[in-house]
Amino acid sequence: MPRDTRSAVPFFSGILSLLLFALSGIPVQAGEGDAGKEVRSPAASLDEEVQSLKQEVLALNRDLFLLEEELLFPSSTQLAVFLSLDVGEFFALDSVQLKVDDKVVTNYLYTEREVQALHRGGVQRLYMGNIKSGEHELVAIFTGKGPNGRDYRRGANHVITKSLGPSFVELKIVDLESKEQPDFEIKEWE
């Protein structure tokens, strides 16, 4: 059973806030210049110190984001599902619903711009989550306009065998010229 990771994000945000609070209380001393050296004003020194701290906080934030991704989606249990289109006249995508083991994991309603991006070769990460090893059934339900402008709703299913390491699955919508119908494929990437 996947563990509840909802508390991880506030935890890391709290650490970052605490670090920023702690850094804001560090006293900054203006250095005294030696004879013959340029004397820097306290404001310039403070500005440099603030810029340095900003860079450190940005680097820390990046590291925390990567750590959060690792904690929430460890590669040994990771499942990522992507969507791509190779359609023209037989199907206009409106929405996709994805189920893993009869549990709805995502519903996505597409805008016209998103559909155009998919038509230009874009690939969307539809879902990323954790599943345990073993067999799992994926069901994708596609809704849109089919041939002759009729409402169209069609499902596709696929059983994957999850082993150690990440699993990547592609939902692909293609035109079947011979049948003048769209076809919905689910395939695993190696």
- Beginning-to-end CA distance, first to last residue: 25 Å
Written as H for each helix and E for each strand, in order along the chain, the element string is HHEEEHEEEEE
Beta-strand content estimate = 35-45%
**Which second-level CATH architecture of the largest domain applies?**
Sandwich
Average pLDDT taken over every residue: 80
Number of DSSP strand runs: 8
Q: Which stretches of 5+ consecutive residues score pLDDT under 50?
A: 1-6
Alpha-carbon Rg, integer: 26 Å
- Just give the CATH class of the largest domain: Mainly Beta
**Helix content, binned percent:** 25-40%
Number of helices: 3
Spatial order of strands in the largest sheet: 4-1-7-8
Determine the CATH topology of the largest domain. Immunoglobulin-like
- How many structural units, i.e. domains? 2
The biggest beta sheet reads: 4 strands, mixed
